[in-house]
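Students often ask why inverse folding is considered easier than folding. One informal answer: many sequences map to the same fold, so there is more than one right answer. In these notes we will look at a single instance of the problem. The structure comes first.
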């Protein structure tokens, strides 16, 4: 019988930490896109007349992009770690003296 992370994935469950990390990553990416569009269209003249605000505004855009990239990297590392652990568990189960029992037995 399947248990642990495999069963959770097959049932459509997502690790809450992964979901939160992905939601925050999506939020920062959408915020960066929105700020870029606004900065290039609606706020362009306003920002060009105020150099200090211009710098602060684009630093905020850069911060949103950086946070989205950082969260994406963290997600990659977490996924790789979980995959490696699962592969190790499967390998250990495959070569153990007492193989896991099937649901039909």
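Output (designed amino acids):
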């Amino acid at each position: 019988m399947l248990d642990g992370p495999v069963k959770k994935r097959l049932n459509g469950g997502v690790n809450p930490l992964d979901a939160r990390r992905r939601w925050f990553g999506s939020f920062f990416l959408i915020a960066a896109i929105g700020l870029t569009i606004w900065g290039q269209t609606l706020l362009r003249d306003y920002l060009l007349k105020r150099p200090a605000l211009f710098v602060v505004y684009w630093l905020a855009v850069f911060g949103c992009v950086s946070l989205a990239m950082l969260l994406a990297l963290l997600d990659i590392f977490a996924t790789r770690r979980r995959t490696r652990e699962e592969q190790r568990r499967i390998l250990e189960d495959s070569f153990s003296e007492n193989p896991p029992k099937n649901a039909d037995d």
